[in-house]
């Protein structure tokens, strides 16, 4: 068993969101055994808003979409952030 360091949703606030930069990789944390993250994408900042750019399986053509990060994170357990 591995220990995964992640940011739980109850700790994600405006101060934390403002620290995210364009190009940061974000994984949606998964509490399931053997599955660290359930989905990944990158942070895109534009027009003073923060977007989660990801390849969506929900769109008809399975294309890359930008979703407001706060909207995407609703009902998610937390995030893992990687910055190069």
Q: Describe it for me?
A:
- With 84 residues, this protein is mostly beta strands.
- 12% of the residues lie in helices and 40% in strands.
- It is built from two helices and six strands; from the N terminus they run E-H-E-E-E-E-H-E.
- Strands 1-6-2-3-4-5 form a six-stranded antiparallel sheet.
- The chain starts with 6 loop residues before the first strand and ends with a strand.
- The mean pLDDT is 92.
Q: Which strand order spans the largest sheet, edge to edge or round the barrel? A: 1-6-2-3-4-5
Q: What oligomerization state is this entry in?
A: single chain
The Rg value, from CA coordinates, equals 13 Å
Number of folding domains? 1
- Averaged pLDDT, please? 92
Distance between the termini: 26 Å
Proportion of residues in helical segments? 10-25%
Q: Output the helix-strand order.
A: EHEEEEHE
Number of strand elements = 6
Q: Please write the CATH class name.
A: Mainly Beta
Strand content: 35-45%
Profile the largest sheet.
Answer: 6 strands, antiparallel
Short characterization:
The protein is mostly beta strands and 84 residues long. The protein is built from 2 helices and 6 strands, in the order βαββββαβ. A hairpin with a 2-residue loop joins β3 and β4.
What topology does this entry show?
Elements: E1 7-8, H1 14-19, E2 25-29, E3 37-46, E4 49-55, E5 64-68, H2 69-72, E6 78-82
Antiparallel strand pairs: 1-6, 2-3, 2-6, 3-4, 4-5
Quickly list its features.
single chain, mainly beta, 6 strands, putative xylanase like fold, six-stranded antiparallel β-sheet, 84 residues
